[in-house]
Amino acid sequence: MTGSRLSAGSFPGGGALLQAPFEPSAKDRLVDWSIALLLLTGYVWLLLVTTDNLGYARDEGFYFQASKSYAHWFQLLLKDGSAAMAPEVVDRYWRANNEHPALIKSLFALSYQYLYLKFQLFAEEGTAFRFPGMVLSGGALSVTYLWARRVLGVGLLGRLSALAAAVMLGAMPRVFYHAHLSCFDMPVLTMWLVTTYAYWRAAMNGRWSAALLSGVLYGLLLNTKHNSWLLPFALLPHLFLLGSMRLWVRPLTGRAGALKALFCMGTLGPLVFYAGWPWIWRDTIKRLTSYAQFHLKHDYYNMEFLGHTYWEPPMPRGYAPVMTLATVPTITWVLALLGVVVAFRGPLLGVLARLRGASASSDSAETLTEPPGQDSSATAPIASTVAIIRPSATPARPTSHLPTFTLWALCVLISYAPWLRDSTPIFGGTKHWIQAYPFLCLFGGLGLFVTTRHLTQRFTAGPARAAVMAAALACVLTAPVLTTWRSHPWGLSAYVPLVGGAPGAATLGLNRTFWGYTTGSAAEYINREAPPGARIFIHDTAHPSWQMMVKDGRLRRDLRVVWRPSDSDIAIYHHEPHMLRVEYQLWVAYQTTRPAWVGTHHGVPVVWVYQRGQVR
User: Fold this and answer.
1) Domain edges within the chain
2) pLDDT tens-digit profile of 60-84?
3) What DSSP line would sit under 163-176, residue for residue?
4) pTM of the full predicted structure?
């Protein structure tokens, strides 16, 4: 194992020089990048084979329209660059959906233009729009694995724990649902993760190449979604904690690499953001102000939480933590909590001991004993961290990975921070803090590493140790994988067994669904039972999303959309408490209270269809 030190610096509660994570051998790099590629391709394949029965969400319909407008501009740019760059032409094509940045919609547009229209790699137009988000989602698993490997060290246990961290991310029902969509939520998760990883590499190795990459990636993150505004609030405290607290004496010690990265992020980042969003090329200040105001003063939508529908402040501050516990597989956040305890218990005890005036005693410090036959390089990078899981009467020894763990924790805390305010809208469910989930899984990988490390200490033979590791991996991943698989295609209706699954969540009064995407689950019944040329009320499904289902052949072309229940022959109802008035209107219009068809998730009604002429 080889490693390099940063210039002398100390970490609060520690005092040792900060050490960079291990540098893998060429063979290790080959194996790790192969695994990362398999994670990406495997997850994308899984998303592609499960997308055909997942209806299009409301927001997807609006992004389809905007992306087609951008695709027309790209075509013009290739044919006549000077004409395409005319300000009035830029505005004409980029005005669509200008409340969101352009990067991801541009990828949607290019996928549609080339993978669907030109090369015909996809049979469905909607799947071509969804493909870039799927690739970025698979990339998030790859980067999670690679980062965990850098921290958890060489050897089978480190590799398996890193693999578990990546799979835990993909095996979250809400993550799996959003990974299918032509939306920005998984892309912003990936771009946040990749940008933070690049910053971390720059902070560890001090290279300008890593710093420049951080700047470019942050510009792309800014051009992905407004969640990007929060990242500096995680990185700046991390910079402060990287070196000596005596800033006036050694301001650069331990911080040189991070400062390079932040400098590039603050200079290159805005330039990349500006260059990639043609809408802001003119009237820049006015349009950026409008973009910021749209999100800072976002409309309040309805969301059910614990039996109450919230549509205006004050919003419940418990929403984010409760929804996390209710939707993230329990073993995942339990392991993450264990990883947090492992990462910070020792330093916190050390700080407390210092405050109490306790003296350190090196001969009483607990150490991690290597079983015979175990390569010490497999655990050396986090050996001192593992040792702090046990209480000690003396300050715990410092760990070279404490700055890394702090960065992970800051990314989690900052992602959840807006929901400390009771005026933050909660209309979007878990997707608004989704960028925290890779870091939860990184802590989960650490928790699994520590747990498995203790389980295997009594085994000296290689096969027995490997069998225990494999069994631990299977125990940890089985429930999340099965829970996620069984949640499809009802991702926003999925809840974990901790709250009783979907039935328990319905009893507790947690939101069953939103975005109107469950029309996809009703498509088979509608195609079979709707009369020829039937007029259909589509309720919460956006018209562009309905049109995409028709184009893709998922719905009959003869069906005519109407906007009032009384005008319809067949009607879809997506259940949310604040929409009950729509169902009452259907009862009056159809003279029945009995749906013709009900779509359920684990027995919980989510979407149903009314049809004229049904017996009451």
Assistant:
1) 519-611
2) 999 999 999 999 999 999 999 999 9
3) HHHHHHHHT-HHHH
4) 0.89
